[in-house]
Amino acid sequence: MHDHGGRIRFFAVVAVAATLLTCACSDLIKVGGKSGWKPNVNYTHWAAHRRFYVGDWLYFVFDKHYYNVLEVKEENYERCDDGDFVKNVTRGGRDVYNLTEARSYYFISSGGYCFHGMKLSVHARGSLPPPLPAPDMKSTENSASLLIGGHRAAVLVVAALSTFILRLL
């Protein structure tokens, strides 16, 4: 007799691990940093100092009573025209948007706030960022920062979790 249950559990674990590994390589990026999504912030300057990749999530934090987040086409972005938006991202003032394709994305806030700087353009790159350098074991501070942040730590956690689950089978 064949153990079909064991095979099913094995493939389920592999599928979950693959999903987690894919998700582990993306970042949650708070738009505007500490400022969040509000008027009179230079989002062009903010975005110019960051790299965005397919799989990353933009995290918009704002007062939903005054502002919103609309994905628009490039020409609407340039004119601050909210009339023909692609998608209303607004849900509750703590909203996320997944960059699913390697392309440019354009966001504005309606109600005239776009004219006060509430507009963001980002270009998602298709390839993952280069791997982090190997930790320098002589410097515990450097090693700790590599283990706490970045993609490498997430990949290591997923790998360890997958190994643990497979042992349980």
TrEMBL record:
One of its GO terms (molecular function) is electron transfer activity. PANTHER family: BLUE COPPER PROTEIN (PTHR33021), OS03G0758500 PROTEIN (PTHR33021:SF547). The keyword Oxidoreductase does not apply. Residues 1-26 form the signal peptide. Belongs to the early nodulin-like (ENODL) family. Keywords: Disulfide bond, Glycoprotein, Signal. The keyword Glycoprotein applies. It comes from the Eukaryota. InterPro entries: Cupredoxin, Phytocyanin-like, Phytocyanin_dom. This is Phytocyanin domain-containing protein. Residues 27-126 form the Phytocyanin domain. Gene3D superfamilies: Cupredoxins - blue copper proteins. GO terms for cellular component: plasma membrane. May act as a carbohydrate transporter.
